[in-house]
Design a protein that fits this description.
There is one protein chain. The chain has 283 residues and is an alpha+beta fold. It has a domain at 4-25 and 82-167: Ku70, Chain: A, Domain 2. It contains 5 helices and 13 strands. Strands 1-2-8-11-10-9-7 form a 7-stranded mixed β-barrel. The chain has a two-stranded antiparallel sheet with strand order 3-4. Strand 9 and strand 10 (146-155) form a beta hairpin.
Length: 283
């Protein structure tokens, strides 16, 4: 069962809705442990005090801010709690904005916002109003010792919350968006649009897989079964010299593919295994 990451009230005007916040998505990946090369024992990273020359328990840890080299100001959890702003317990909606006006570069993590029993009617009233108006809410929320700017929008009869990067956190890259000196021909744009149309499809996220993680799992299975690992063939790419010719060949290839009987979309080539004498897996 998902655990609550924040509990408090969502407010707008004089309406207060008791809510809970849950992480909406979490990355999944194959992880490896660090082992000692000699004996294959798993290496540990103890909390070690170099002054007392011993390991310490988590109960012995305090937080310190280094204001000068090796000089620290100490803070207790009680002191840190005193600095919490009102947004630690209450998410006050500051304003409503159109979702399509928000630059997607600002989006960070996503969360599911659910109501407590006492807030059901107000929660669904707000959800329905935002669905029909096309507006999303901007609010502030403090969690994990940081105040976030968040945007709340309707999704599948509920509310989804996204933490957002502040403008000061958005990085500028001088080369980004520069098109001076680039001349595009009308025929090139026409062919590019045709290629986009030929690749257009409904968004179905379930059909996309993390092929690197799938290949790692296949490699682990192969090792357990005593098989030889053979590298995946990587495509050899070169810079495009003739843009028109490349577009025409791309479209031609799509047309040839369209004439063939439909088949399941192929993922990137998996790790190839070759049989060899089975042996016990290494520790």
């Amino acid at each position: 069962m998902a655990s609550t990451v924040w509990k408090g009230h969502l407010t707008f005007g004089l309406i207060s809705i008791p809510v809970r916040l849950y992480t909406a998505a979490r990355g999944e990946r194959v992880s490896f442990n660090q082992l000692h090369k000699e004996c294959h024992s798993r290496l540990k990273q103890p909390l070690f005090c170099p002054t007392c020359q011993r390991q310490v328990e988590r109960s012995e840890i305090v937080k310190g801010y280094e204001y000068e080299k090796d000089q620290y100001l100490l803070f207790t959890e009680e002191e840190l709690e005193k600095t919490e702003p009102p947004s630690a317990k209450v998410m006050e909606i500051l304003e409503f904005v159109k979702m399509d006006e928000v630059d997607r570069l600002h989006y960070d993590a996503s969360y599911l916002l659910t109501p407590e029993d006492a807030g059901q009617r107000a929660y669904h009233l707000l959800t329905r109003a935002m669905e029909e108006s096309g507006y999303a809410a901007i609010a502030k929320l403090t969690m994990h010792q940081r105040e976030h700017i968040v945007i709340i929008g309707p999704r599948k009869n509920g509310l989804t919350l996204y933490t957002m990067y502040y403008t000061s956190e958005i990085r500028e890259v001088a080369e980004y968006g520069q098109s001076e000196g680039v001349q595009l021909k009308d025929q090139e744009k026409k062919l590019a649009l045709q290629l986009i149309e030929s690749l257009a499809a409904p968004f179905e996220p379930q059909k996309y897989k993390d092929n690197f993680q799938e290949n790692l799992k296949a490699m682990i299975k192969a090792k357990l079964e005593g098989q030889q690992i053979v590298a995946v063939n990587q495509p050899q790419l070169a810079p495009v010299i003739d843009l028109m010719e490349a577009l025409k060949k791309s479209l031609s290839g799509k047309e040839e593919l369209a004439k063939k009987p439909p088949s399941r979309a192929a993922a990137s080539p998996p790790v190839v295994m070759e049989k060899r004498g089975k042996k016990a897996a290494s520790r």
